[in-house]
Amino acid sequence: SESRTAVLLEPFVHQVGGHMSMMKYDEHTVCKPLVSQELSFYESLPLAMRQFTPQYKGIVSVHLKKDSLGNLTLIASPSLQTESCGRLDNAIGDSSVTIWHKCKWAASTGTGSEHAFVKWSHTQLTKTFKDSCPGKMLLRTDLQYRTDSLLEDANRNQPERNSYNPWGLHCHRQHLNRMSSKHNENKLHQFLLLENVVSKYNYPCILDLKMGTRQHGDDASEEKKARHIKKCEQSTSASLGVRICGMQVYQADAGHFLCKDKYYGRKLSPEGFRQTLHQFLCNGNHLRTDLLEPIILRLKALLSVIRKQSSYRFYSSSLLIIYEGQEHKENTAPLDNHLRFQKPNCTTSHGTTHSRVDVRMIDFAHTTFKGSKCNHTTYDGPDHGYIFGLENLIKILQNISEGK
């Protein structure tokens, strides 16, 4: 049927880090360009690690579409390969299909099917995002994002404030441009289908941490290797084994998200890292102390698992810490234009119930392990650089918990 043959891929509005575009396939599923080394990791994932990674759902074919105006979109074509590689939760008749039909049939009065894709086109993406069918489903009217030093233009001008995290759209535009310049429309690209780990959150607060003391993969060129080593040396990757790659945290007092990008994270000192971690747990009114214990417990559980994974090296992978930004009864008053988002002093709130939190490892394009189809080098023992980062992260959170 029509609903099974094409899904219009949308930019994933909660992408806070990375350089590759993450796309939304349906409410519970995201997709990204397939890298064989990452596929190999998911196909042979140790059972103990599954609770700390997104569920792998299969592979889908994707092609670029350009309309008569030159606008670009990505279209996924579900196939039998998708079915055999893993179950797509509620894929049939769920949001991917309804979004597809809304976008498709909303333009049925046009002269051709190509007009169905105009709203989510490359050139119009930013200005029509809030007005699109999927945009309205994704965004709340009282929700806005703070865009600190994010995405300055060539003249170092700040972008206008938008009601979404601009990083994902930045990656999406770059990705479409790369695909368009390198490939023709008929070429099919394979994308990985993965669980959308923030789909259950209304106001997902997300911290993207690049883990480990080494970031380059075994296959990196000498130039890339030198570049990554320099980034590590000049950031907290060397001193702490972890650095911030992106963040969005809901500010309850303002009804905004505060966003930080990877460039901000690279400049932080160890003390700046600690302060940003504190900021991630601060909702503008108070420090969310109710989150500290569950996050620390989950990080300790992950640490225990990583210590037992011999030969694995998670080069350039990230760790997401996620929590629900909306407390039981949020006062989402409209934002006053002169209001500052970053409160220097957050009072402490001692919650009595543990809020739902999550910790997930992502991005395994450079992960290597014994027996991998793409294995270049075999290592012994666990990934000590990753363990070093996890131990420091836990220590800093424990210090915050103790008021240090």
From TrEMBL:
Pfam families per the UniProt record, alphabetical: IPK
Coiled-coil stretches: none
EC number: 2.7.-.-
Gene Ontology, cellular component aspect: cytoplasm; nucleus
GO molecular function: ATP binding; inositol hexakisphosphate kinase activity
Membrane-crossing segments per the record: none
GO annotation terms (biological process): inositol phosphate biosynthetic process; phosphatidylinositol phosphate biosynthetic process
Keywords: ATP-binding, Kinase, Nucleotide-binding, Transferase
The keyword Cell wall biogenesis/degradation belongs to this UniProt entry's keyword annotation: no
Origin: domain of life: Eukaryota
Top-rank EC class of the record's enzyme: transferase
SUPFAM superfamilies (UniProt xref): SAICAR synthase-like
InterPro entries according to UniProt: IPK, IPK_sf
Family listed: Belongs to the inositol phosphokinase (IPK) family.
Protein name in UniProt: Kinase
Organism: Fregata magnificens
Encoding gene per record: Ip6k3
